[in-house]
């Protein structure tokens, strides 16, 4: 459950979509963009876009099971990681509305063995101000992530850690908060967490493809997750659902997720007063929800990561607009993919990234290292060679370093900023936004 606001040349699966998609040039271009990423082995996954109560675009790209050639479709279920926390928080708010819990309920009423439990409230856990150490950050976590763990064993793991900080003094993202909130839901309702989700959200909203995951079965339209080794998609190790729990053990589809967040903001899950409380930010965290800025717009939602799945769900209340992207084949920055989708949707200037990469010998790359300056720009640019990634890195004065993608032995690009650098003897030409400047090695 990562904290976060993609060599098989195969034909992507195309699933029937709404009429709006077929006549809307923006949606056609979004499809072209995602096909561009997919065909260049950067992405496999699924997307849904919803305007008010209508899903106007949905499509899956790639495979649920590469080895057996099982294509994904818009009904394929993907693990959603920490977006699960939005479901968990919603149920906690329901229980508060039912007066079965309160924001001031102490963790010590349920798990007194957790350090500082008598000072940690439900509210602290919802907005990550509890100070409970994040169990997935522990080095030992990798040893048991695939094993079935009892509630008692997981609580013992968490109880063994020292607090990260005094409750309420700051915030730090911790999966431990939501794992424990799930256990509290079970104690209060007398039902397993997955049953509470089914009764209180899934059935209520008539979601077709959202449930608690178990071992992946592509024959039941469930997807594996994949990393890319430079040539092939490599299937990733599965987590056991017991170690993710209410912090990240749900699977769903983008369409179900956009319907869920739309219902949340319409008041179909919790009352408006509860929603207002959920959206109140403390130290940058809401209660089971984040803010994702896109230009002047503020999207509310959550992201998630588990195994090699990456997911994001966002809602812009002013326009009643929802978007969800779930990736099961990860070989590109998901944030850049989302920026591309939203840029096209909002008719902002956007150039498809160049995804072709040339193989350039390390000795050539090393030969470009140095400090470069220009008579027309006050910033200097340092070029370094990173041996681990076999890439050139560029860094302007006072700015962060960024990788350069080789198009040829002399031409390199950084697509997110639309930068092209062409090396020549003792210097380079840099192009960006219609401007051209010359740099010389010092």
Automatic annotation (TrEMBL):
<keyword id="KW-0645">Protease</keyword>
<feature type="domain" description="Beta-lactamase-related">
    <location>
        <begin position="46"/>
        <end position="331"/>
    </location>
</feature>
<dbReference type="InterPro" id="IPR050491">
    <property type="entry name" value="AmpC-like"/>
</dbReference>
<keyword id="KW-0121">Carboxypeptidase</keyword>
<dbReference type="InterPro" id="IPR001466">
    <property type="entry name" value="Beta-lactam-related"/>
</dbReference>
<feature type="signal peptide">
    <location>
        <begin position="1"/>
        <end position="20"/>
    </location>
</feature>
<dbReference type="Pfam" id="PF00144">
    <property type="entry name" value="Beta-lactamase"/>
</dbReference>
<dbReference type="GO" id="GO:0004180">
    <property type="term" value="F:carboxypeptidase activity"/>
</dbReference>
<protein>
    <submittedName>
        <fullName>D-Ala-D-Ala carboxypeptidase</fullName>
    </submittedName>
</protein>
<keyword id="KW-0378">Hydrolase</keyword>
<dbReference type="InterPro" id="IPR012338">
    <property type="entry name" value="Beta-lactam/transpept-like"/>
</dbReference>
<keyword id="KW-0732">Signal</keyword>
